[in-house]
Amino acid sequence: MAYAAFRSIGAYAPSKILSNDELSSMVDTSDEWITKRTGIKERRIAAADEFTSDMGAKAAQKAIERSGIDKSEIDMVVCATISPDYFCMPSTATIISTKLGLENVTAFDISAACTGFVYVLSIAKAFIESGMKKNVLIIGAEKLSAITDYTDRGTCILFGDGAGAAIISATDNKDEAIIDVHTGADGQFADLLMSPNGGSGSAHDTLNQEATSCFMQMKGNETFKVAVKTLTKDVVDILKDNNIAGSDIKYFVPHQANLRIIKAVGDALKLEDEQVVITVEKYGNTSGASIPMAINDIYENGMLKAGELMLLDAFGGGLTWGSALVPFSPLEKK
Ligand code: ACO
């Protein structure tokens, strides 16, 4: 049986920084409120002509270069995004594939909001273990600024743009393999976090359509409570199922939505501060891109070494959730 190994990571953040002070001149908020309630100090905003696929392609290019795998060997591309270049078609994954010059690939997007990266990881693992694919490029890429209402102080302070990508490859060596991925969903809580307009479910007259925005709406406080509970349960379950203790984890890489949520989950699990990876202060919530951007940070800082075990944990609109136990398994340099 083939196993799936997490070979490499790459990320991209646009250069424009939107600070809390700048947001305070746009809506009734303050640096003090945002910092205290969320931990966010700034977020990145893509240029008007910079699309989700551009950011995804830049992150993917780095992941490919670092993987030691030739791009001609990549046979599948899956992109997690809720802010695709085009809402119906083509998929952002196909656009990214073309921008990278990839040929003979299966390419598609998935929609699982902030849990997107854990979902694409589970898809890559399943395709590889079944023998259908050998080298899968997974991407989380978001231009959330395109679907954020900058008159709504309850949401616009949270979100930012960026992308992260990883190469997942077949291996015979079980020690290198992704140990487990859990994913879940519950549509009963769909209204906590949604983009109610712009799709076939919105209440506009389909024969006389006007342009409708896809702005995100969120019941922040209710979402917060469900997030802490779900993220904690996710991790407890996956550790227990695999007989692994919290102290065996080198890095806990949670979805970066709110510093208070991350700290509450870390405390519930009795993790040490140095185990918990935090990037929310500089990127805000980049939805499906947040976990790979955070992994890329510890990689580029020289903190993430071959063989170290990461515990990923995500929660988002849908509702969706997921967790994963992932050793970092770069190819040995030949
Ligand atoms: N600046 C100043 N005041 C504000 C702001 C703001 N930006 N936003 C809200 N307030 C006010 C509210 O109006 C309210 O005022 P009131 O007491 O007079 O009514 C007060 O602050 C408290 O509002 P809450 O919504 O209760 O604030 P809370 O402490 O819950 O923080 C936040 C809000 C930051 C949104 C938090 O609830 C949160 O992070 N929620 C979870 C987000 C999340 O995890 N989302 C899931 C993933 S995202 C995805 O899937 C795309």
Could you characterize the architecture of this molecule?
With 334 residues, the chain is an alpha/beta fold. It has a single domain (1-334), classed as Peroxisomal Thiolase, Chain A, domain 1. The protein is built from 10 helices and 13 strands. It has a 5-stranded mixed beta sheet, with helices on both faces. It is globular and about 55 Å long. It starts with a strand and ends in a 7-residue tail after the last strand. The mean pLDDT is 95. The chain binds acetyl coenzyme *A. Acetyl coenzyme *A is lined by residues 29, 33, 37-38, 113-114, 153-154, 157, 193, 220-221, 223-224, 227, 257-258, 261, 285, 287, 316-317.
Quick overview of this protein structure:
The chain is an alpha/beta fold and 334 residues long. Helix content is 31%, strand content 23%.
Give structural attributes:
334 residues; alpha/beta; Peroxisomal Thiolase, Chain A, domain 1; 5-stranded mixed beta sheet; 10 helices; globular
Structural class: alpha/beta
Give a short account of the largest sheet: 5 strands, mixed
Q: How many discrete structural domains?
A: 1
CATH architecture: 3-Layer(aba) Sandwich
Helix count equals 10
CATH topology assignment: Peroxisomal Thiolase, Chain A, domain 1
**What ligand molecules are bound, each kind once?**
acetyl coenzyme *A
State Rg: 19 Å
Arrangement of strands in the largest sheet: 1-7-6-4-5
Distance between the termini: 25 Å
Rounded mean pLDDT score: 95
CATH class: Alpha Beta
Percent of residues in β-strands: 15-25%
Query: What's the name of the CATH homologous superfamily?
Result: Thiolase/Chalcone synthase
